[in-house]
Amino acid sequence: MLDAFSRAVVSADAKGAPIGSSDLVALRKYVSDANKRIDATLAITQNVSCIAADAIAGMVCENTGMTQPGGNCYPTRRMAACLRDGEIILRYVSYALLAGDASVLDDRCLNGLKETYMALGVPIANAVRAIEIMKIATVAIMTETNSGRKMFEGINSGSGSQCKEIAAEAASYFDRVISAIS
Amino acid sequence: MKSAVTTVVIAADAAGRFPSISDIESVKGSLDRASARFAAAEKLAAGIDKVTEDAVDAVYKNGIYDQANKDKCARDIHHYLRLINYCLVTGGTGPLDEWGIAGMREVIRAQQLPTAAYIEAFSHIRDRVCIPRDMDQQAATEFKGLIDYLINALA
User: Do B24 and A38 touch (CB under 8 A)?
Assistant: First the structure.
């Protein structure tokens, strides 16, 4: 796996050139925005079960047949598997966000995920919907547009509006998950 | 590849947990030193050809080593300095370990090049870094640390 730094190294090595001032601009931005990145990562890790449970509940509410006999979330064992998968995807998104690079998500989570879901008979359209809800919830928490407790409440520095850029990056990782399984 | 964030993420993934506060602390600690490392990387990238030439000239002017090897030595020193530049960027020794140290000594020996000349050249580069003309104290510490790491691996 790579992060923002080793990604720059791999592409510089392909050219056989050292990393100079022009290549360092993006990396310096990563360093100067490190606190936002860390807050955004914490926004996921501190709200994992809330984000995952809400997303799965939302998916089921839109398709109530899923928890009925014959549905894909019946019995509870399959519902539990669904919640677990939501958390796993959130975990890899949090890794990718901290690293500033999608390679960990691609290599360790998305590679073969679609084939696994198809083999297990997971309804892809519903899974996509659950990931969409997780994306919306994560972005809302990071930008403090959620209802309920705000991320920077009681903290002197930082605000949700300053995290718009990093929230957009997080959203792009969820989009990556969606396009990988659909 | 081993770098500031990847080591932490790989460890977290092996345990199947989310990045913890201590993981994030360790990333933050590495990023706090990043500006010094980037400054060193920038200076090294700008002067890499000159530094190489200077070190190789200093080592080969003594007449101890076969002059025929000078060009090969310059090529390798340049290569190593480039890897040190990468290490300064990543904040770990990943690039040197993976591309510069694993098997490299054997390759140098196989080509019948003297490793002693390499070590001498790197010592020369390390000792010639002037503070603050070339880079500031922090940047020089990071740079010299990596050169020492490489010298130990070659010796």
Answer: yes
Q: Name the nearest CA neighbour of B34 among A19, A90, A157, A73.
A: A19
Q: Do B9 and A99 touch (CB under 8 A)?
A: yes
Name the minimum distance, in Å, from the CA of B7 to any CA of chain A. Answer: 10
Q: Domain B34-154 carries which CATH code?
A: 1.10.490.20
- Please say whether the dihedral angle defined by the alpha carbons of residues A137, A142, A145 and A148, taken in this order, is positive or negative: positive
Q: Which residue has the higher pLDDT, A58 or A153?
A: A58
pLDDT of residue A170: 97
- Contacts of residue B54, Cβ cutoff 8 Å, sequence gap at least 6: B124, B125, B128
The Cβ of residue A164 has, within 10 Å, a number of other Cβ atoms equal to 13
Find the farthest-apart pair of alpha carbons in chain B and give their distance in angstroms, rounded. Answer: 59
Pair A170, A40: CB distance under 8 Å: yes
| CATH label, A36-181, candidates 3.40.50.620, 3.30.565.10, 1.10.490.20, 3.30.110.70 | 1.10.490.20
User: Which B residues, 57 through 96, put their C-beta within 8 Å of a C-beta on chain A?
Assistant: 81-82, 85-86, 89-91, 94-95
Which of A 12-31 lie inside 8 A of B, CB atoms? 12-13, 16-21, 24, 27-28, 31
Distances (CA, A) of B64 to B60, B105, B115: 7, 20, 13
The pLDDT assigned to A36 comes to 93
pLDDT tens for each residue of B108-121: 888 888 888 999 99
Is residue B53 within 8 Å of residue B42, measured between CB atoms? no
User: By the CB < 8 Å criterion, does B3 face chain A?
Assistant: yes
The answer to whether B6 contacts A3, with C-beta atoms less than 8 Å apart, is yes
Domain ranges of chain A: 36-181
The answer to whether residue B105 scores a pLDDT higher than 80 is: no
Domain positions in chain B are: 1-32, 34-154
Mutate to test the interface with B, among A1, A2, A7, A9 (most CBs of B within 10 A): A9
Q: Give the Cα separation of A42 and A29 in Å (integer).
A: 20
